[in-house]
Write a structure and sequence with these properties.
The chain has about 250 residues and is of the alpha/beta class. It has a single domain, classed as NAD(P)-binding Rossmann-like Domain (Rossmann fold), CATH 3.40.50.720. The chain is built from 7 helices and 7 strands; from the N terminus they run βαβαβαβαβαβααβ. The chain binds NADP nicotinamide-adenine-dinucleotide phosphate. The site of NADP nicotinamide-adenine-dinucleotide phosphate has 29 residues, from α1. It holds the Pfam family adh_short_C2.
Length: about 250
């Protein structure tokens, strides 16, 4: 099956976790993929392992000029874009009494400013009938101590996606958000938690999931494929929880 034959997809945060699994699946389904990340060495490693029609673009989504560069390199190589998957994100932990300006700016610049500016840059090059996907989180629905700024950032993205859904309606562009629950990716190792606390936190998350486990990046990638493909042609403006039921109980 080639559900994305000749479609052009741009994916941010695609050197790791959910973004990488999605890039692999999109390539398998016939898409031309722009794999973006902020570390050249990680992109080089990815280049070695993937097959198909893709390029890698070094871009730090928290910087305005890098979003411009990302879309320019993508369109220079492949022409107009069909699928824009704004997935890059960070989730450093900081209980409210420890939040500082650096933490706030880091999280909001990456998780909110980045996707919004990339969308702005991409819109003139996005085909009518194309699709924009954001990676949100179920933190929009459930409270987890220490994730205050992260949760606020994903809430902001959710609000933005609603407005965008309306703004692009005359062009038939669908805008949807994937809201993962706990997914086994490298993000947990980047939260700044000691190993034992990380393990305890992970076990705690898994216990809150009706299915009793973390999800996999591949399970999210399959959802991204569904939402990006014609199979989801009448799905627009939703935030879809992929969380083993965690947000529902
Ligand atoms: N895993 C979960 O449980 C979970 C749950 C809910 C939502 N999410 C969301 O899912 C998305 C993907 O996360 P993941 O779990 O797959 O984690 P991940 O493996 O750490 O992937 C995140 C990707 O985003 C990249 N990134 C971070 N800051 C960036 C920046 N300023 N510019 C460009 N790229 C940047 C990372 O690059 P580096 O490799 O250089 O760090 C990495 O490639 C995030 O938006 C996250 O908030 C994850």
């Amino acid at each position: 099956m080639s559900k994305l034959k000749n479609k052009v997809a741009v994916i941010t945060g695609a050197n790791s976790g959910i973004g990488l699994a999605t890039a692999k699946l999109f390539l398998k389904e016939g898409a031309k993929v722009v794999i973006s990340g902020r570390r050249q060495e990680a992109l080089n490693e990815v280049k070695e392992t993937l097959e198909g029609d893709f390029i890698t673009v070094l871009a730090d989504v928290s910087k305005a000029e890098d979003n411009t560069k990302l879309i320019k390199e993508a369109t220079d190589r492949f022409g107009n874009i069909d699928i824009l998957f704004l997935n890059a994100g960070i989730a450093p932990i900081a209980p409210t009494e420890t939040i500082d300006e650096h933490h706030y700016n880091d999280v909001f610049n990456t998780n909110v400013k980045g996707p919004i500016l990339a969308t702005k840059e991409a819109l003139p090059h996005l085909n009518d009938g194309g699709t924009i996907l954001f990676t949100g989180s179920i933190v929009n629905q459930k409270a987890f101590d220490g994730f205050g700024v992260y949760s606020a950032s994903k809430g902001a993205l959710r609000a933005y996606s609603k407005v965008l859904t309306s703004e692009v309606k005359s062009r038939g562009i669908r805008v949807n958000t994937i809201a993962p629950g706990p997914i086994d990716t490298p993000i947990y190792g980047k939260m700044g938690l000691p190993e034992d606390v990380l393990e305890e936190t992970g076990n705690g998350f898994a216990a809150m999931v009706p299915l009793g486990r973390f999800g996999t990046s591949e399970e999210i990638a399959k959802t991204a494929l569904f939402l990006a493909s014609d199979d989801a042609s009448y799905i627009n403006g939703v935030e879809l929880e992929i969380d083993g039921g965690m947000s529902q109980i």
